Amino acid sequence: xxxxxxxxxxxxxxxxxxxxxxxxxxxxxxxxxxxxxxxxxxxxxxxxxxxxxxxxxxxxxxxxxxxxxxxxxxxxxxxxxxxxxxxxxxxxxxxxxxxxxxxxxxxxxxxxxxxxxxxxxxxxxxxxxxxxxxxxxxxxxxxxxxxxxxxxxxxxxxxxxxxxxxxxxxxxxxxxxxxxxxxxxxxxxxxxxxxxxxxxxxxxxxxxxxxxxxxxxxxxxxxxxxxxxxxxxxxxxxxxx
Length: 241
Fold this sequence. Notes:
The chain has about 240 residues and is an alpha/beta fold. The chain is about 45% helix and about 15% strand.
């Protein structure tokens, strides 16, 4: 894995995730309200498995380009699915999903992966330019700011602002222009093969798959299981896996 002058990052599933410990507690609490008792370990397993489905569920849904009502319907159904799998009736599942979405307004259950800040600190210390390319609503930068991450990035290319979603080549071209660098100096880091890896490759940009769960060990692609591995590449070490 070679070193690059500019590292571009996806957001959801790459930099941030749902805080499933807190979310599981909220699910268990609401399930108990309708007489469904589930062990916390089971709730956590259900929610973590659902998280793995997000890239595929959104593969053919231009989520950040939908109307607020349509976006809300997508996430309500997604959050309700967790309650359904725990054995709740449909009416309760949807009601509780609505409650959780209202209470957090899309933000309070967000958390930063443990490897993110050390990796970003390390890349910045090595003089790397950092940017974001994300299929996200207009509040992407403000959300990252609230999580202490926005300060690391030189620019933000956000689908909800541009009106273009990955893997559309135009969103990657916008990032190339914003960087002021040749595409060969850029690499995109993301967790979705379809949106991130294939999208970047289509414009001649290198891409690195974030595979923390080691789900794609046999895939022929540059891959890291921990973002801190990017610092080894930035130092000229070839530790790709």
